[in-house]
Amino acid sequence: MTVSDQHAPALEVSRLTAGYGDSTVLSGVSLALEPGRIAVLLGRNGVGKSTLVRCLAGLLPVRSGTVSMLGQDVTNRPTHAMADLGFGVLPQGKRMFPSLTVGENLDLGYLTRRRRAKRGGDPPLAWSPERVLDLFPVFADRMRTRAGSLSGGEQQMLALARAMVGGPRVLVLDEPSEALSPARVSELGRLLRGLRDQGMPILLVEQNVSFACDLADVVHVMDKGRIVAERRGAQITDDRELIRDLLSI
Ligand SMILES: Nc1ncnc2c1ncn2[C@@H]1O[C@H](COP(=O)(O)OP(=O)(O)OP(=O)(O)O)[C@@H](O)[C@H]1O
Ligand SMILES: [Mg+2]
């Protein structure tokens, strides 16, 4: 049985250090994602954003520091255990299986959901698979379409739909707006705001300042593996230029 605290931060990263081989990429990163909020992590290419996502997802060892999810210490939990606890992730880049159909891609989400349910993971009822599909009407009559033949934007939406079908309690999205048309970015924004308004905590990793800041309840700016600025609420609008400057140095 999974014990989780609904009032605890959805995610809490404390003084996390990680890297590859002899190199240290993250040097003492701390940030928190509160329940029902969107926390944004902004940073230029190569500062360590995806490295943090890999640590959270159990794909890269945390060398020091801690990660907790919904009040539980999950530092260095393997990927499948994180999924069982309700960690939903949209990795950067290639995100779905192009040779499978839309329906088969979504079935992978159902598998995660069923496994979680079997292990007492208790996927949130609010996000039944039917409910998730209501959010993505574009797929309703395209279940047999090969995913690889969808447009880039639709493929990204499919990956997000698959993550949602898994019934996550926490969503981490690594640059979901990358390579999307402006219209798709707006659509994604509406979708994420809707998820947040229904209680889904989202850690949004981005380089698109306008898109991310418009959605954010809190913004963390990363540079060279450290958090160098944090802004919340009205400060995000007031300090938008400062945030841009930090990203363009
Ligand atoms: N598998 C790896 N092995 C060795 N070094 C890596 C590996 N993956 C990333 N790095 C290095 O770690 C640093 C941080 O990379 P990371 O992918 O976390 O950056 P990022 O902030 O996500 O950048 P982007 O915005 O381009 O996705 C970079 O210097 C990168 O070259
Ligand atoms: Mg990255």
Key features?
249 residues; alpha/beta; Rossmann fold; 6-stranded mixed sheet; 4-stranded antiparallel sheet; 9 helices; binds adenosine-5'-triphosphate; binds magnesium ion
Task: Give a quick summary of the entry.
This protein has 249 residues and is of the alpha/beta class. It contains 9 helices and 10 strands. A hairpin with a 2-residue loop joins strand 4 (64-69) and strand 5 (72-73).
Domains (count): 1
Question: Approximately what portion of the residues adopt beta-strand conformation?
Answer: 15-25%
Strand runs, count:
10
Low-confidence stretches: none
Strand order of the largest sheet: 6-7-8-3-9-10
CATH fold topology: Rossmann fold
List SSEs in N-to-C order.
EEEHEEHEHHHEHEHEEHH
Structural class: alpha/beta
What general form does the structure show? globular
Helical residue percent band: 25-40%
CATH class category name:
Alpha Beta
Structural description of this entry:
The protein has helices at residues 49-56, 79-85, 102-118, 129-135, 152-165, 182-197, 209-215, 234-238, 240-248; strands spanning 11-20, 23-33, 38-42, 64-69, 72-73, 87-90, 170-174, 202-206, 218-223, 226-232. The protein has 249 residues and is an alpha/beta fold. The chain has one domain (11-248): P-loop containing nucleotide triphosphate hydrolases (Rossmann fold). The longest helix has 17 residues, at 102-118. The protein is globular and about 45 Å long. The model has no long low-confidence stretch (mean pLDDT 91). The structure holds adenosine-5'-triphosphate (ATP) and magnesium ion. The site of adenosine-5'-triphosphate has 12 residues, from helix 1.
